[in-house]
Amino acid sequence: PVLLGLTTLSGLALGVPVGSLVYWMLRGNSSTLPATSLLSAVGHTAEFSAAAAAIATALAIPVTALAMRHRNRLTLLIERLAYLPMALPGLVIALGLVSFSVRYALALYQSSLELIVAYAILFLPLAVVGVRSAMGQASPRLEEVGRSLGCRPAAVWWRVTLPLIAPGLGAAFALVFISSATELTATLLLRPTGVDTLATQFWTYTTEFSYGAAAPYAGMMVLISAVPAYLLSRRMSTIARSRPSR
């Protein structure tokens, strides 16, 4: 009964939104709003999300490495501060970046870079979680063996540690990519003028009750997030199978 209940819950969680999406796509895509390019929105979404995922993953590596390999009050504080953006609404971070760029870096205002930085800040905690999980499975003894063989710390990191945590980096990248691709609040405030993403176009059409026109953008958000989600689930399955049974 428990397994049946969980299966039913998972089926409803996936089936209801996907079913509604298919229904509106089949019903039509008429709208009173001017037509925009679906491919352009897909390109912008993928570009911004991938850049933010790369930045957040790169920032998570030193934060996690310091906290796990050189534990002290300062490194633990840095790691805990990295989790704080998860408690902040996207609106707060977006307004903070707008205020900063208007006062001190006007060239950054309403640029793609500002939006990418907002994504990276918002979802840095997800990257830290992914990298931390991988770092926890990479034994420090292997790094010590590398140094005992005469390798410099940088060479040990490049040849030993990085290959060991590479799957975790991929998981962190996937988590941030998926979250960035569907983020709306900060995107509405920070996107460059004339640039639309899948989330903003979906929001624009749904506010005008043009659900048929919004459905393709929602469908593309599902598809563009499905690939990293599938890779992430494969990674989790591999970890589960590699653990020894008790």
Describe the structure in your own words:
The protein is an all-alpha fold and 246 residues long. The chain contains 11 helices and no strands. The chain has helices spanning 2-27, 38-69, 73-83, 90-104, 112-122, 124-137, 140-148, 153-181, 185-190, 198-207, 211-242. Helix 2 (38-69) packs parallel to helix 11. The protein is globular and about 65 Å long. The mean pLDDT is 84.
Poorly predicted runs of 5 or more residues:
none
The total strand number stands at 0
Helix content: over 70%
Estimated radius of gyration: 21 Å
Distance between the termini: 25 Å
Oligomer: single chain
The major pleated sheet works out as: none
Question: Can you count the helices?
Answer: 11
Secondary-structure element pattern, one letter each: HHHHHHHHHHH
Beta content comes to under 5%
So what's the overall shape? Answer: globular
The chain-level structural class is: mainly alpha
What's this entry about, in short?
The protein is mostly helical and 246 residues long. It has eleven helices and no strands.
Topology, pairings included?
Elements: H1 2-27, H2 38-69, H3 73-83, H4 90-104, H5 112-122, H6 124-137, H7 140-148, H8 153-181, H9 185-190, H10 198-207, H11 211-242
